[in-house]
Amino acid sequence: MNPVRNISLHTLAVSVLVVFSTTTALAQTTDTTTLPPNVQRPELGPNDTITVGAMIRNNELVPAGYMEWCWVRAPYPKEKWKKRQEWTRLRNAIYVTYPYAKRAGAIMNDINSKLAGISDKDERKKYIKSREAELKKEFTQPLSDLSIYQGKVLMKLINRQTGNNCYEIIKEYKGGLTARFYQTVAFFFNSSLKQPYNANGDEREMELIVLEVERMYRL
Questions:
Q1: Taking the complete model, does pTM exceed 0.90, yes or no?
Q2: Which secondary structure element, helix H or strand E, spans residue 55, and what is its range?
Q3: Is the pLDDT of residue 94 over 90?
Q4: Using an 8 Å Cβ cutoff, are 178 and 186 in contact?
Q5: Which of 160, 179, 183 lies closest to 108, judged by CA?
Q6: 100 lies in the same domain as 50
Q7: Is 59 within 8 Å of 39 (Cβ atoms)?
Q8: Position 68 in a domain
Q9: Do 113 and 207 fall within a single domain?
Q10: How far does CA 12 lie from the centroid of its chain?
């Protein structure tokens, strides 16, 4: 036999033996990971040479791995897109008008509590007029920038804050004739002062957004 070939075969045999011995030693290396007492450690064979992650399932170690996040995008259905646009418009309107409704509601509730202790008709009118000036000074400019839609939302929120729609409020403070006049004006703008508010009915979606805003104010 050619001496060079003999040496090569010998070298190859030794290399294979070394690799096999190393692999066996790695497979049989003692794992020092601490496991719960009710979980048995698996028995490794001579070919168990690849280290993988594991997790405990039903008191047993099973191979496990984690994949990277994969984001899947799909076109929005037209009917859902329209609904989302309506919801976004409502949410934006509530975020704009809620501070005014909250402040106006607090003032009106304060007015009602004060009027409960005033029996004289002239004194009541005088007091209402003074508070009316306060409301005009505080709200005339910012409310004039609202759209008709935002105005509707504001009236609903005022109903929520006070328990009365705007028509009843104007009727109480300014009289039925004035209330009917403003109601007629609102009608020509495709609106109404008698905006209802039912937190468990038609205004359920609005109520959820208002609760979201109120949580933000409490932070």
A1: no
A2: strand 54-57
A3: yes
A4: no
A5: 160
A6: no
A7: yes
A8: no
A9: yes
A10: 67
